[in-house]
Amino acid sequence: MELQIGGLSAVYLAKEYGTPLYVYDKQIILRRVQELKEAFPQAKICYAIKANSNLHILQLVVQQGLGADCSSKAEIEIAELAGFDMKKSIYSAVNPSNDDLKKALESGIILNLDDLSIFRRLQKIGLPRKISFRVNPGFGEGKFPGIVCAGEDSKFGMTEERAAEAYRLAKENGIVHFGIHMMTGSCVMNEAYFEEMTKAIQDIAVRIGNKVGIEFEFIDIGGGFGVPYEAHERALDMKSVSERIKRVFTYPANLVMEPGRYFVAEAGTLLTTVTTMKGKFVGVDAGMTTLIRPALYGAYHPIVLANNPSALFTEKYSIVGPICESTDCFARDRDMPVVHEGDILAIQVAGAYGFAMASQFNGQPKPAEVMVSHGIHTIIRKRETTEDLIRYARH
Ligand code: LLP
Question: From ligand 1's centre to the CA of 225, what distance in Å?
Fold first, then answer.
């Protein structure tokens, strides 16, 4: 039998919509959202829309009552369009422009600033009643060095001392509601880490609170929940992660979290057609422009022969794309069944930071996206055309 996604044949979908094609199983997204809501009934959950900001996916998340975590002016605008409640959403930007800050302020979203200097810039634009600052605790964790977002050499957040200064300044300027934020890394599979990190930010909150004479209304532990990509990886037990966090989280504040990957990664599959067989190289029509994670981080994604998923692995292939870069490689010397021209390969766990990081390099219009649910398929983003590559250069 052919590979099934949401009750439909992946090969059928590839023929119907063409490839490369992102397909999302709506039920998996809903299940992941439900799982987190049940594991953390006391938490305010803001979906980090950078992971996948397709409007239809965002609307689905809105229906589940979540807020949004936005990182730019455009993400705030898209979140507003999708219907997110801005008062339940947070803006965690790094090095934002004044234009972005102005938009954030006007939208009513909670501002979470990455540096004291950004507060000074904000003073000239206007001040909200509530503010949060991002602290870098000096350590971080993530599946790849490129997705660790804290530590001595990291551009993110500020030291505890500098954050205390920022809160002091905010207090002097009449701000009365405070939150504190930390996002130390992505795709963390170590359950104990969430406990350590929560304890660390809480300790920091207590010290800053005492020093500055403020109380925090929320503590935001960021995102970072990992999902298994490789056969040997075990999914996080969210109940146990929740227990661990609950054990240390005693501060009388709301717990906020901003997961991105967790909701959408496993729901997404990238379908691609084999165009070329050249020795051990299997050439496909998707490339690093469609899914950059393998090229950028050396990330592993499972790859399945969609037209015969149970075929025995007898070959070793390198699966490569059409881009003029040697890093345009989804898998090197991967155990695979025999593959032929015209076969459909399914690159799995591609729903997070897949389409979101796609580019048009080498004249690659971005792929289409399709949502499937219980055997029904709906296009949720049209495939780009050559016209889309030149539209803004026309005068
Ligand atoms: N909050 C903030 C402020 C963030 O910067 C991020 C992700 C998240 C939340 C969501 O983190 P998550 O739950 O998805 O781990 N492109 C990389 C991931 C980079 C994550 C950057 N920040 C990848 O493909 O693995």
Answer: 9
Predicted local confidence at residue 228, as pLDDT: 98
Supply the pLDDT for residue 395. Answer: 78
Residue whose CA is closest, atom 11 of ligand 1?
Answer: 223
Give the model's pLDDT for residue 202: 97
Q: Which residues line ligand 1 (CB under 6 A)?
A: 48, 51, 69, 92, 147, 149, 183, 186-187, 222-225, 258-262, 293, 353
Place of tokens 């998707």: 286
Tokens of 357: 């990081």
How far apart, in whole angstroms, are the C-alpha atoms of residue 252 and residue 164? Answer: 19
The rounded distance, in Å, linking the Cα atoms of 260 and 269 is 16
Encoded tokens for 58 = 């965002």
Rounded CA separation 390/363 (Å): 10
Give the chain's residues under pLDDT 70.
none
Query: What letters, b where the CB count within 10 A reaches 16 and e where it falls short, cover 149-172?
Result: bbbeeeebbbebeebbbbbbbbee
Query: Residue 351 — φ and ψ, nearest 5°?
Result: -75, -20
Domains of the chain: 4-23+267-390 (2.40.37.10), 40-260 (3.20.20.10)
Q: CA torsion sign, 318 to 323 to 324 to 326?
A: negative
Place of tokens 């990455």: 114
One-letter-per-residue 3-state SS of 67-124: EEEECCHHHHHHHHHHCCCHHHCEEECCCCCHHHHHHHHHHCCEEEECCHHHHHHHHH
Tokens of 131: 């503010």
Q: What span, in angstroms and rounded, lies between the C-alpha atoms of 135 and 201?
A: 8
Strands (E), the chain: 4-5, 8-9, 21-25, 43-48, 67-70, 90-92, 110-113, 130-134, 177-181, 218-220, 254-257, 268-278, 281-284, 303-305, 315-320, 329-336, 344-347, 368-373, 376-381
If you measure from the C-alpha of residue 223 to the centroid of ligand 1, how many angstroms do you get, rounded to a whole number?
6
